[in-house]
Amino acid sequence: MARSRRAASPTRLALARLSTGSIDGAWWPHSALIAAELPDLVGALHRTLGEVVDIRINWSATEGQLDLETIAAGARMMKGDNLPRRPRLMFVSGRERRVKLLVVPSMTSQALGLMMLRTAAGLPTGDGLADNRVSDTAHAVWQLAEVESAQWRCDVATPAAPGKVGS
């Protein structure tokens, strides 16, 4: 009997218990084929959100691959609001609730990916869980994601959202 993809690759999703900021959690897909992993994400969010009715994203397919190290390094070197690369966010609306997720690129290192999930869940990230470089990168990316989240108009009633996936 063949093993299911779900059993081999569980959904890497972390939600904050209490939303204290503009981002409610993080999703770390296993591959760059995000559309192929959406059914598993929707399934994982169903209990929290109810039936998922809308998904919006703040990027287009033409933007290509992204890595968090590049975002963090660019933020350290640039000043102002015109960063060349920005953290990717996904706004998922269910019948009962909505969440905004940071989408962690699939090619992110294990250490940084786990740090981003812990940060998103509001769990401690210090005490020797990672080296300073990883911690600094995670912190920089999270701050940029919060700025991007505050600037992104993703309300369901807003037709100018950068991207929409499914319905």
Give an overview of the whole structure.
- This protein has helices spanning 5-8, 34-49, 68-77, 110-121, 132-151; strands spanning 13-15, 25-27, 52-57, 88-94, 98-103, 163-165.
- By secondary structure, it is α+β, with helices and mostly antiparallel strands.
- It has one domain.
- The chain has a six-stranded mixed sheet, sandwiched between helices.
- β4 (88-94) and β5 form a beta hairpin.
- α4 packs across α5.
- The N and C termini lie far apart (34 Å).
- InterPro entries: DUF5994.
Give the topology:
Blueprint: H1 5-8, E1 13-15, E2 25-27, H2 34-49, E3 52-57, H3 68-77, E4 88-94, E5 98-103, H4 110-121, H5 132-151, E6 163-165
Parallel strand pairs: 2-5
Antiparallel strand pairs: 1-2, 3-4, 3-6, 4-5
Give the helix tally. 5
Order of helices and strands: HEEHEHEEHHE
Strand content: 15-25%
Please give the share of residues in helix: 25-40%
Outline:
The chain has five helices and six strands; from the N terminus they run αββαβαββααβ.
Identify the notable features of this structure and list them briefly:
alpha+beta, DUF5994, six-stranded mixed beta sheet, disordered N terminus, 167 residues
